[in-house]
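Journal club prep — side note

Before the paper discussion, L.F. wants everyone to see what a predicted structure for a comparable chain looks like in token form. Sequence:
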Amino acid sequence: MAKETTPVLTPEIQAHTRTIAEKITAARSVIVFTGAGMSTESGIPDYRSQGGLWDKFTPVYFDAFMSSETARIQYWEMRMDMEKGLKNARPNPGHMSIAQLYETGHLTAVITQNIDGLHQASGIPDEKIIELHGNTRRVRCMSCRTLISWDAAQQMILAGDKAPRCDCGGYLKPDTISFGQAMPEKETRRAAELSLKSDVFIVVGSTLLVQPAALMPGYALDAGAFLAIINLSPTPYDDRCQVLIREKAGPVLADIAARVR
């Protein structure tokens, strides 16, 4: 397989990255908001796109998971299929560039729609990451709320338990938000508060269509923040942001981090 070449940033994009870097350097609060486009650059499929997970499996809604053994088995079959794309995924240059902003003291927080744990793997501590849709590397009991590792749950499944349960008898489920499941109140509230206090809000790899996560850039704009969007496809905020970059996240974020450093 031919090695993928890193895109050469055009002078126009470099002018935009210079502007973003200058805004970051002068800001008191910088929020980076990430979506599936960050994960795809690490080789993780975009499950909503054609040929993705939702073409292979019918989504299992939360109520069905809680009420049906058959639905729970289907859910875990889907999760095991997901692991094919997750198990070897590593932070890409975009993740590492955001981590550099943290290391230099310029990052207030990451708000992410992603569930892969790659921001933590890049070196950003948990307390600086707000996971709006949870984290699939953790598994939670729906009854006693105990957390176990994904590896522990996977061993249960490989041993023949198609829909594993906790020692308390409760249903085990990856610690992510399923269709029909309520968003995490604490994380959603904190994300909104930080968005409203931000001076710079950078969207990376998100189409900003999934609510309520997609409200965060609007909160930032309403509070007077500088909004930059780095995404390959259109978003509802394209005509409201100050900088719009249609390019892969990795090279753009690397250029921004280098200018800030």
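L.F.'s comment for the group: The domain at 1-44+91-133+182-261 is CATH 3.40.50.1220 (Rossmann fold). Keep this in mind when we get to the figures.
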